[in-house]
Design goal:
This protein is α/β, with parallel strands linked by helices and 371 residues long. It is built from ten helices and six strands. The chain has helices at 3-35, 38-64, 79-107, 116-143, 146-175, 180-207, 213-224, 259-277, 294-308, 341-355; strands at 231-239, 245-254, 280-289, 313-322, 327-334, 360-366. The chain has a three-stranded mixed β-sheet, with helices on one face. It has a three-stranded mixed β-sheet with strand order 4-5-6, covered by helices on one side. Helix 8 links the parallel strand 2 (245-254) and strand 3 (280-289). Helix 1 packs antiparallel against helix 4 (116-143) and helix 2 packs antiparallel against helix 3. The protein is elongated.
Length: 371
């Protein structure tokens, strides 16, 4: 989907959310004040935060859609992550405020006066919020908009909130027991938890998280499908917004390839990944594999067995040896779960030196970037 089309979908969906929430705010605030119901008033305030979130989503989409410029050659897509953070702040503020007000009403309870009009409006709000939440979430997934997905989840939580308020009102009318303030506390905790979950997801986008395992494996399969590639390693994906992901990968090739052959292979790999996965490989690094010397092949196998015999070692790759200079190099990937990765690395280095004491080794402790 083109950036302009994606932006239109986000803006249109957000405007629908704004209109729906403003109407709900007006009706709920009116009936909440009339019925002296703290739960309904807080529900209205929560809908108001949703309307503000939609406005922020539109601003985020507009800013993210700005064309690349000299200062930002990779575009402005990360503005959407910032707008998602603002939405998180609004959700957390609404949750904490609601919790404080609900606790106050437990300490100093007030009796609500529910009418049939009040109950009808709250029930209608539940239905509207469910429809709105599903619609916004679906549109968010369709255009890969974190802000819309967050707004959709929030709308579905609002439906649960309104349903809880309705249930408390019905219980009060049926039994005379007022649970409104207690329901408000539960609702507030749910809202706060939702905000924390959204915060965690958005921080993952900003900080950079492990790529989706299926995507990583798919990209490596595509790279390894090239006839000149023995293996793909060190896949790194960096997101600059939902529409732009830039990657880097190391590939292992035979040591007899010419610069022209490597250049042709690199271009084929980049084109294939872009076509199949819509990801631009900015860098294709090269590991040279010895293919003309049986002694090196045996050495590679021995060192691989030695390294992989240690618990916590996930992979060894990029092995290359120069027999004349008596030097060799390779990369080790050690699981992040290992408490002291450096200590294990040092132990492996010692074992390798014992196997081949006449060699100088350059062993890199690599990171487990992708599955």
């Amino acid at each position: 989907m083109a950036q302009s089309d994606r932006e239109r979908v986000i803006v249109r969906t957000s405007i629908i959310g704004i209109v729906a929430n403003v109407l709900l705010v007006a009706f709920k605030a009116a009936v909440g004040l009339a019925a002296n119901s703290i739960a309904i008033v807080l529900d209205a305030v929560n809908n108001l935060t949703d309307a503000l979130s939609s406005v922020i989503t539109i601003l985020g989409a507009k800013l993210a859609g700005k064309k690349p410029d000299r200062d930002h050659p990779l575009g402005h897509g990360r503005y959407e992550y910032l707008s998602a953070m603002v939405i998180v702040a609004i959700v957390l503020y609404a949750g904490i405020t609601s919790l404080v007000e609900s606790v106050k009403k437990i300490i100093e309870p007030e009796i609500a006066d529910y009418s049939m009009v009040t109950l009808t409006i709250v029930a209608a709000a539940v239905i509207v919020k469910i429809i709105l939440g599903r619609y916004v979430s679906a549109k968010g997934r369709a255009v890969d908009s974190g802000s819309l997905i967050a707004s959709g989840k929030d709308a579905l939580f609002d439906a649960a909130i309104s349903a809880s308020v309705l249930a408390a009102a019905l219980i009060y009318l049926g039994t005379g027991v007022s649970l409104e303030a207690y329901v408000g506390v539960i609702i507030s905790i749910v809202i706060i938890k939702a905000g924390i979950d959204m915060l965690r997801e958005t921080l993952d986008d900003i900080l950079g998280s492990r790529p989706d395992p299926d995507l990583a494996k798919g990209i490596k399969r595509t790279v390894c499908a090239d006839p000149d590639v023995f293996g793909a390693y060190d896949l790194l994906l960096e997101s600059y917004g939902p529409d732009l992901t830039i990657g880097a990968v190391h590939v292992e090739v035979r040591d007899t390839m010419t610069a022209a052959e490597i250049d042709a292979m690199t271009r084929r790999v980049q084109a294939a990944v872009l076509e199949e996965h819509h990801i631009a490989l900015a860098t294709v690094g090269i590991y040279s594999r010895n293919t003309t010397n049986d002694e090196v092949a045996e050495m590679r196998s021995a060192i691989t067995r030695c390294a992989m015999s240690h618990e916590g070692v996930l992979q060894m790759h990029g092995f290359y040896a120069d027999i004349e200079k008596r030097t060799a190099s390779f990369d080790l990937i050690i699981d992040f779960a290992v408490k002291d990765r450096e200590d294990l690395y040092a132990h492996i280095v010692e074992d390798v030196h014992e196997l081949y004491p006449d060699y100088t080794f350059n062993i890199t402790l690599d990171r487990d970037l992708s599955d």
